[in-house]
Amino acid sequence: MDDTTRVWTIERLAEALDAPDHMGEVSVERVGEVLRVTLHDHGDLAVFLSVAGEQIVVSTLLWPVDEMTDAAAFNHFLLKAQKLVPLSNFAITDVDGREYYELIGELSVESSLRTILIELRVLAHNALDAAADLRHAFAAA
């Protein structure tokens, strides 16, 4: 599949990301209307990709909210530190009745495949940095 402008669907994204060109960098598994993209160069981090209207949303779970001693203070810290995490946003999401911090990025459904791959890499890099740096920085503050 070439990199010309198109409107992406889950099916097209699954096919494009699962192409031999990306073998070794990513593995793709479809889970309903979501793709689980495993980024091998980022410690096999799982990033979830979905298409919603005009957007492609990519996200990854960080850690459970209830593991933070003072979640309210940490949430405040995250809002202030947001500018340190380019192209990504923090959120809280519920997974099986437990809240998790999540890192999210969004793109247009008309983004090139190259841009989508860049977003996946950036999100993975930011998630690993957040896990290593932000959580510990707050604990030390």
UniProtKB/TrEMBL annotation:
InterPro entries: DUF2170 (IPR019231). It holds the Pfam family DUF2170. It comes from the Bacteria. This is Cytoplasmic protein.
